[in-house]
Amino acid sequence: DIAVKNVRSLIETLKKMRSFQFECIFEETVTIANKIEWPETFIEDTKRGLKRKRMADESDDIEERVNAKDLFRRDTYNVKLDKVIQDITVRFESLEELTKLFSVLWLSHTYKDSLIEKNTELLIRSFPNDLDIEIVDELKNMKMVYSANFGGESGETIQPLELLNKLLEMKLNTHFPNIVLPLRIFLTIPATSAGAERAFSHLKQVKNVLRSTMCQNRLSSLGVLAVEHKLARKANLQKIIEDFASNKARRKITE
C-alpha cells in the first residue's frame, strides 16, 4: 500500500512539473548556468530564426517565428516527461492490481462480512494451493479481536504489517494461521525489481581468480553477503560458527 501511494504521488508530481513548473525549472537552470559561466541562451537562438510551417489554408503573408524556449518545452521537456509518466504507469500497474487483490488484509472494524467473502474468494482463487475457505471465518472473527485488542473501535484501518506484528506480539498467530500466511506472502513480495538488479551489479565485485571453479551456490551466497553487507557486519560470527559446527557434528553422529 505504501509503495502504491508513493508511485501515485510520483506520477502526480511529474504531471504538475509538466503542466505548471517549466518556468520555475527553467529559471533555476538559468541561475545555475550563470554561476558556472555557461551560456544561458539556446543554441537555436544563435542560428537562423526558426519558422513555423504554414498550413495549406494559410496565406503567404502569415509568418510566425518559433521561440527556441517554447520549442524546447514542446519537443523535449514535455516529450520526456510524458514518456516517464507512461513508463511508470505501465510498470506499476501490476503492483496496484496486487494491492487490490490483498485488500481484504487491510483490516477494519467497519469491514462488512459480504465484502470480506467477496474479496477473500478472489484471493483464494489466486492462491489455491496456499489458502482455503477457512480464512473467511478467521477474518470475521478477527474483526472482534481487532476491536477488543487493537483499539479498533473508532473504525480506523490497520495496515498488514502492523496486523502481523500484533498477531505475533500477542501470540495469536497460531489461532489465525490462515490470516498469517497471506500476510507473510503479501509482505514479502518486492515492490520493484531493484533489489535483484542491484545483485547483478555486485557479481563483478564478488568474482575473483577462483571464479572458474566457484560453484553457483557459493557465488549466490557471496552475492547476498555483498548486497546485505551492513546486516552481515552486525552478525555474531562466533555464534554462527558454533551453530554450523554443532549441526555438522550432529549430522555426522546420525550418519
SS class: mainly alpha
How many beta-strand elements? 2
Mean pLDDT: 77
Biggest sheet: strand arrangement = 1-2
Biggest beta sheet summary: 2 strands, antiparallel
Shape: extended
Number of domains: 3
How much helicity do the residues have?
55-70%
Order of helices and strands: HHHHEHHEHHHHHH
Percent of residues in β-strands = under 5%
Radius of gyration (Å): 29 Å
**Uncertain residue ranges:** none
Total helices: the number is 12
> What distance lies between the first and last C-alpha atoms, to the nearest angstrom?
49 Å
Summarize the structure.
GO terms for molecular function: protein dimerization activity. The chain has 255 residues and is an all-alpha fold. The protein has helices at 2-20, 22-35, 68-91, 93-101, 113-126, 134-149, 160-169, 177-187, 194-206, 216-227, 229-234, 237-254, and strands at 107-108, 157-158.
Give a description of the structure.
This protein is an all-alpha fold. It has three domains: 94 residues, no CATH class; 86 residues, no CATH class; 58 residues, no CATH class. The protein contains twelve helices and two strands; from the N terminus they run ααααβααβαααααα. Strands 1-2 form a two-stranded antiparallel sheet. α5 crosses α6 and α7 packs across α8. It is extended, with a radius of gyration of 29 Å. The two termini are 49 Å apart. The model has no long low-confidence stretch (mean pLDDT 77).
